[in-house]
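Subject: Sanity check before I submit

Could someone independently write out the structure tokens for this chain? I want to compare against mine line by line before I put it in a report. The sequence has 191 residues.
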Amino acid sequence: MTPASAEPREVLFALLKELQERGISEVAVTGGLALGAWVAPRFTKDFDLCAVVPESAVDPLLAQYDGIRVGPERIPSTIRFEFAGWPVDVFVAKTAYDRECLRRAVAVELFGAKVKVVTPEDLLIHKLIKLRDDKTKLLQDAADVQAILQTCAVSSTYLEAWLPPDEARFLSEAMSLDAASLVARLQTLGA
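---
Independent answer below. Compare away.
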């Protein structure tokens, strides 16, 4: 087991190895680490992953790491646990969009090794999905959305295919918004 004081690199690779050993091999990094891969590294205190999780892996993973499931299904929408002192959210691939996101994930250099990371478009989609129900880190999410749009070339066609029209429209307008307007618009999405 990786010690709680371990560096993010050590924890991430130990986590990915642990998931692989449990039959969870189709995994991609999202969240703050993905943002760092595409835009610029920023401090993050957790790991966000997308993965295909076999039903047989759910309960043993939850039991081993005293985790919780989000959603009532036998295969939950999200599996939350702590690994070596780091909070982990595994967003379970269950929909056609989830499978497409994982299919499109790109191997990039992260902490000195190749790791699959969601594309900038999928990172934007993940941010908006999160913001539908959780606006606790609204300012950080607004800054992340703006940074992705300013730094990365994104496919509006792909975004329009997977987002509700109001969210796709918001992203097409977001580049022209000042910070206060961007935050105000994000507050109303999903409401």
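---
OP: Matches mine. For the report I'm noting this point. Strands lie at 27-30, 47-51, 68-70, 78-83, 86-92, 106-110, 113-117.
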